[in-house]
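Both lines are retained for reference:
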Amino acid sequence: MLKGMPASNLEKAVFSDRAGRDFNSLALEVFAFQYEKNPVYQAFCKALKRNPDNVQELTQIPFIPISFFKKHKVTSFAGKADFVFTSSGTTGSVPSRHYVLKKQLYEKSFLEAFRIFYGELGDYCILALLPGYLEREGSSLVYMARRLIEESHHARSGFFLNDLPGLKQNLRALEENKEKVLLLGVSFALLDFAEQYPGALHHTTVMETGGMKGRRRELVREELHGILKKAFELPVIHSEYGMTELLSQAYSKGKGLFQSPPWMKVLMRDPKDPMGVSEKPGAGGINVIDLANIYSCSFIATQDLGRLHEGGWFEVLGRFDHSDTRGCNLMVE
């Protein structure tokens, strides 16, 4: 049986050039490591009669349903986690719990991904509009936003919980100074801001993270982006695709087309065959390989529907019926 390489070596490999150059073989090594170290994942694989001896290709690796993070402690380590991320969900629903062994891994993942897609954080003022997330414990999105704010080292960077007038005042000053700004916001809060304080944002990137959370009528992504583009006189609206169960994020710089960092890959799952997974362009259920999830599980079958395009680009089309409502990425198109 193929043995997974030591965890310390995996950590180095995931964020090296090898992740992009040799993703498939690295994913198989992560699979072998997690099969050996993760009892929940190993039991799932055994039920499917899959193991490192008979799994030779990426599409043969079992992807655990994301609901496992609600019902089980999905870990590939023994001992205490640095912290536990929890999903928002709806009142009365069971939250997902992601046990994170090393906060440095999460930080390395989102900081490196940001640099890949947007450049140096020190070039930006980061403004975060995340009500509903900021008001609860365990949000991975809030953790990420806080570290982005800190790493920007900009005096005006910060959270704006319900202070829309304050946000407008800061944006006006930054726009007048022609400073580079990232406005990161949950969808319903960005809509509130757009309605109350429209105005041209020529030096600001507006990025929505999804999430109406029952605050507003659900909008298709095209409609949401159309409202925001008109209000802020912007050619495109950016998006972030992430979730509690992942340590990595994909980004869209317009039209809802997402791109992943080198250590993350999206595949399509046949809705009628959970084991029917493909790397080829087409529509289906979104399966994510997140190699940064070394100490939990890197192979996750989400409840999102999507379409994969040439070059690894993907879009999110909606969610499977009867799946739990999530706080993130609820929009469909």
